Write a sequence for this structure.
């Protein structure tokens, strides 16, 4: 087999990314055409690209099957999905008008996301035999760990797209919006499987740049503009800090490849180097902590969450955060095996965890803007997850040979919680979009008694709040139980107790929302002017049922998380 | 044929009687979910059916139950249902009952069934109200039948949400405050339990048998295998575990000083919810101690039993004095609960079989008498729209049936001989006298009995006797049939178990003896 053929074969492994990239391109071209700046060539180009995408996809399906050595030929399935994709895109050319302007790019993205998701599910099942997967071009590590995060990203993209299609405050520029959104998720998908410092940086910047644009997308709203500027400035500083950390690690590890660095450091990180390695790790993790908004890198979070359009906030709180965790956990897992400085990393994480959960919960207590409240709550949840990152190596002490091994249960608890966190936060933000639209305000003082007018969505929101608090039978409770177990088993009993105390605090503000919705009679409410589309309610009910389902039968998600964690 | 069906449902391997009792209410809730919200009567009727079926089944359960098998151990459990649920952590769907839980399950089903007619007049958010009520029933019953710690915890938490909304939406003027206070207090206890839960699991894993099975854990604790050589911050693991769990359950009981949520919650809750709260929710605290707290840390329990007894004693006397000082009728009843639940703890603290029997009996007796007292308060509140004891008077002459029923409830609470409260207090005090370190406490507890008699008699005097203080009260109609139907069964039970206490004691005693064995007291 020639070199070229091998490369082509490798493409099968990054099928989901390719599909998303094609989707982004198509959205852009469709937008150009719709804007009226059309000329024959742009229409022609759009047609060519979509057709090429369709054929390309069916070809990819074949390559993909071959690459994975799967007995099942995926050509047919993929061709069908590809056809849907082409049809949606082509359909766009016939439907005109404001309504379609809003709808069509969203539908294209939905189709593309489903297709990419289909690939990713295929990859996941193909990887079940060998979770370690393969390395593509020596840069991308396609293992079950990364595919798990890709699946999370795709679910998030799917739901956020649905939210956006029903988010009326966004009035124009849908094409650019979706381009940025797909671009950000593309960045995430590269980021989570990066095995190379440079690629981590590139993935992170793709994600960040798209996020900056998205945060400021409602140009007419000064809060949105402020959010974007804040986000850019903090983001720039964090990137610089992270790059500095990378440079130190590169200098000491002699490579940009994570595994190589880990191997090198495991042998040599002694004496004076320990300080430098520790500093490098601290800077790297600090820069990444910005993405997950862990204390003390959280200052942007409430303002950006409040100012950004709510679907963007959803994305920032869910997919962007999960990606940050994916990288942090991978770096800690791969580089943490060296002797001598592991304790420093874990104690750093433990402190960040304690600060984040306490600060987040205390900050949330007095918020009345629901988006701000959820922003602080997300900081608190970062704290809970970091608890398990600190305990990633279990109760290990510098033992035989100076190497540590990742406790698979600990990694599993992180992955499970991120999945749980995604489901319940998607739901919570979606309900906020719905109710805020009906009430005409994001301030919960305007929400009194609305629960009686919007019983379905408000009822589902209560389920999400229960789950965020960690009360059974919800997915959030089981996730929290896994985190507690990990922390206690890893010797961080004090963190677990602190988290328990924090849980009680958090109940107070989560149920402030429930109280506002239901504890005043309907007659005292401001009334509902607008009712968002029923699709929104359907999506939210589905997420609510999922929250309960994984709370009662957690094994389904748990075994997936466990299998993915095995790749670390 | 009926016998065959019974055997199928209840008996032996594969019986699902306990699951039915637990989950029929939640099925009713799902049915109500799809009924249009204007159909109030249909919703109420469905709620009646969905609470009536478990009541019938719980009576059946008591008849089919064989007390002689003992209790508190895996072998003695009856109607066992056991399936793997979350295999990664050895979590099981493990249900079973013994003589401790059977009467309480019956009491629970009865009170929830009574709550439906008692709630008939509620017109606001009827659909939501009954859905939450049914969800609550599943949560409570689940706690009484669960034999897996994790499962127990899930049911335990399941009760919180419906209770929060039931107080918060349908309660009195300060309902928001009362609801969140109840929620926060209980959740604080719950997270303590959660930490204990995780720790117990990890310890059992260390011992080579990772499990949440309460019976197996108790067995390990008894043979000293549950964290014997562990200590955290200079205190033995077992001691930590004991106090963590104790506080979690003590908040629910509630005992002084964790009781302050109770008067608020009781006063603000609507009558049927107060009935459930006082009648059965508080019992979960005592039940949790017997089923989980003591068996998992028997050594610490024996060591700290005297502390428990003192706490119980303080609750008895303090609760009684505070009750005497109340002007609000409902608050008086609420504080009388604090006082009466103190006997439960005093009985357990005595470490004597009679003390345990007294405590367990008191749980049932108080469940009926306090529920009845709250219904009595509800009747007068519905008419007068206030609860100020000093503004009533002479109601007995205008509402004779009401006064008659009310005095049954009051005398049961007072502990009049031939009423169930008397048996409970008598057994407790004898038990306390038997216990070496609790003997002196009997003297003080007796004082509590006297104060109890004082405030109850004084209440009867202020409400029913003497001249009518307000002319308007003369127009009050006597107790309605619906209200009487709610109270009558409770009054009957108070008398029945007061005259024939062995009906209840025979069910409980072998199980209590088994429990004494598990706790290493024999």
């Amino acid at each position: 087999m020639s070199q070229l053929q091998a490369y082509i074969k490798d493409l099968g492994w990054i099928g989901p990314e390719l599909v998303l990239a094609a989707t982004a391109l198509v959205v852009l071209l469709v937008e150009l055409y719709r804007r009226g700046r059309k000329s024959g060539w742009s229409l022609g180009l759009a047609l060519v690209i979509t057709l090429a995408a369709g054929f390309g996809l069916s070809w990819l399906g074949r390559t993909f099957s071959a690459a994975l050595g799967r007995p099942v030929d995926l050509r047919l399935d993929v061709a069908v999905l590809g056809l849907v994709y082409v049809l949606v895109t082509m359909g766009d050319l016939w439907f005109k008008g404001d309504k379609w302007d809003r709808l069509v790019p969203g539908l294209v993205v939905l189709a593309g996301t489903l297709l990419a998701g289909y690939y990713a599910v295929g990859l996941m099942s193909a990887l079940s035999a060998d979770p370690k997967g393969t390395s593509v071009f020596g840069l991308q590590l396609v293992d079950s760990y990364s595919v798990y995060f890709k699946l999370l990203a795709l679910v998030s993209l799917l739901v956020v797209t649905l939210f956006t299609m029903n988010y009326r405050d966004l009035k124009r520029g849908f094409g650019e919006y979706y381009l940025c959104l797909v671009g950000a998720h593309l960045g995430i998908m590269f980021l989570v499987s990066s095995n190379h410092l440079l690629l981590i940086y590139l993935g992170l910047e793709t994600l960040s740049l798209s996020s900056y644009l998205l945060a400021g997308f409602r140009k007419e709203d000064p809060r949105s503009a402020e959010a974007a500027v804040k986000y850019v400035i903090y983001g720039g500083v964090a990137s610089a800090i992270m790059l500095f950390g990378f440079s130190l690690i590169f200098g000491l590890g002699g490579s940009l490849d994570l595994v190589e660095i880990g191997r090198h450091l495991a042998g040599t990180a002694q004496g004076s180097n320990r300080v430098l390695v520790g500093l490098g790790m601290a800077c790297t993790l600090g820069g990444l902590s910005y993405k997950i908004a862990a204390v003390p890198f959280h200052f942007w979070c409430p303002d950006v969450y409040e100012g950004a359009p709510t679907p963007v906030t959803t994305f920032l709180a869910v997919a962007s955060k999960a990606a940050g965790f994916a990288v942090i956990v991978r770096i800690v897992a791969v580089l943490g095996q060296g002797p001598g400085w592991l304790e420093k990393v874990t104690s750093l994480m433990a402190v960040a965890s304690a600060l984040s959960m306490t600060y987040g919960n205390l900050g949330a207590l007095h918020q009345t803007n629901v988006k701000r409240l959820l922003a602080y709550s997300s900081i608190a949840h970062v704290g809970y997850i970091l608890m398990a990152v600190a305990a990633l190596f279990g109760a290990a002490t510098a033992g035989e040979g100076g190497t540590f091994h990742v406790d698979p249960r600990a990694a599993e608890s992180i992955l499970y919680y991120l999945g749980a966190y995604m489901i319940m936060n998607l739901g919570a933000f979606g309900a906020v979009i719905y109710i805020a639209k009906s009430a005409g305000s994001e301030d919960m003082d305007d929400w009194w008694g609305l629960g009686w007018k919007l019983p379905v969505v408000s009822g589902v929101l209560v389920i999400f709040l229960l789950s965020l608090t960690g009360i059974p039978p919800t997915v959030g409770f089981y996730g929290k139980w896994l985190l507690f177990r990990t922390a206690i088993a890893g010797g961080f009993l004090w963190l677990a107790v602190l988290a328990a105390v924090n849980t009680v605090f958090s109940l107070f503000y989560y149920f402030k929302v429930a109280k506002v919705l239901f504890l005043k009679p309907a007659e005292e409410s401001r009334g509902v002017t607008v009712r968002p589309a029923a699709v929104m309610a359907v999506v939210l009910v589905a997420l609510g049922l999922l929250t309960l389902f994984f709370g009662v039968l957690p094994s389904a998600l748990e075994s997936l998380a466990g299998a993915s964690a095995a790749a670390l | 044929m009926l016998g065959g069906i019974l055997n199928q449902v209840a008996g032996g391997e594969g019986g699902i009687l306990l699951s039915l009792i637990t989950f029929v209410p939640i099925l009713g809730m799902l049915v109500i979910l799809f009924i249009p919200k204007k159909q109030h009567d249909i919703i109420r009727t469905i709620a009646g059916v969905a609470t009536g079926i478990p009541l019938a089944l719980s009576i059946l359960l008591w008849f089919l139950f064989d007390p002689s098998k003992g209790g508190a151990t895996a072998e003695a459990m009856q109607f066992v249902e056991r399936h793997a649920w979350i295999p990664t952590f050895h979590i099981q769907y493990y249900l079973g009952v013994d003589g401790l839980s059977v009467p309480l399950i019956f009491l629970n089903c009865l009170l929830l069934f009574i709550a439906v007619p008692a709630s008939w007049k509620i017109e606001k958010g009827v659909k939501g109200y009954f859905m939450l009520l049914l969800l609550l029933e599943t949560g409570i019953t689940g706690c009484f039948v669960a034999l897996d710690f994790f499962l127990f915890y899930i049911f335990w938490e399941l009760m919180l949400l419906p209770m929060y909304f039931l107080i918060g939406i349908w309660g009195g003027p300060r309902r928001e405050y009362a609801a969140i206070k109840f929620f926060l207090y209980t959740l604080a206890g719950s997270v303590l339990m959660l930490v204990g839960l995780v720790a117990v699991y990890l310890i059992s894993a260390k011992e080579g048998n990772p499990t949440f099975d309460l019976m197996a854990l108790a067995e390990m604790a008894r043979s000293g295998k549950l964290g014997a050589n562990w200590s955290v911050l200079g205190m033995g693991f077992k001691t930590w575990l004991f106090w963590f769990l104790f506080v979690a359950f003590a908040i629910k009981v509630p005992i002084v000083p964790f009781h302050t949520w109770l008067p608020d919650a009781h006063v603000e809750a609507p009558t049927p919810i107060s009935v459930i709260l006082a009648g059965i929710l508080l019992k979960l605290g005592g039940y949790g101690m017997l089923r989980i707290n003591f068996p998992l840390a028997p050594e610490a329990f024996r060591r700290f039993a005297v502390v428990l007894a003192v706490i119980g004693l303080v609750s008895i006397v303090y609760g009684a004095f505070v009750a005497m000082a109340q002007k609000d009728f409902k608050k008086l009843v609420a504080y009388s609960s604090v006082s009466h639940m103190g006997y439960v703890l005093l009985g357990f603290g005595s470490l004597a079989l009679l003390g345990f029997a007294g405590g367990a009996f008191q749980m049932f007796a108080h469940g009926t008498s306090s529920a009845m007292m709250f219904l009595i308060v509800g009747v007068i509140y519905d008419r007068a729209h206030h609860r100020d004891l000093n503004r009533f008077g002479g109601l007995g002459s205008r509402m004779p049936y009401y006064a008659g029923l009310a005095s049954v409830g009051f005398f049961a609470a007072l502990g009049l001989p031939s009423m169930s409260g008397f048996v409970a207090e008598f057994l407790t005090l004898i038990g306390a006298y038997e216990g070496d370190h609790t003997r002196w406490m009997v003297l003080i507890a007796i004082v509590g009995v006297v104060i109890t008699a004082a405030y109850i008699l004084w209440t009867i005097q202020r409400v029913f006797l003497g001249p009518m203080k307000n002319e308007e009260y003369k127009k009050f109609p006597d107790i309605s049939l619906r209200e009487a139907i709610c109270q009558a069964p409770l009054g009957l039970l108070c008398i029945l178990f007061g005259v024939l206490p062995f009906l209840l004691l025979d069910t409980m005693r072998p199980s209590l003896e088994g429990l004494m064995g598990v706790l290493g007291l024999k």
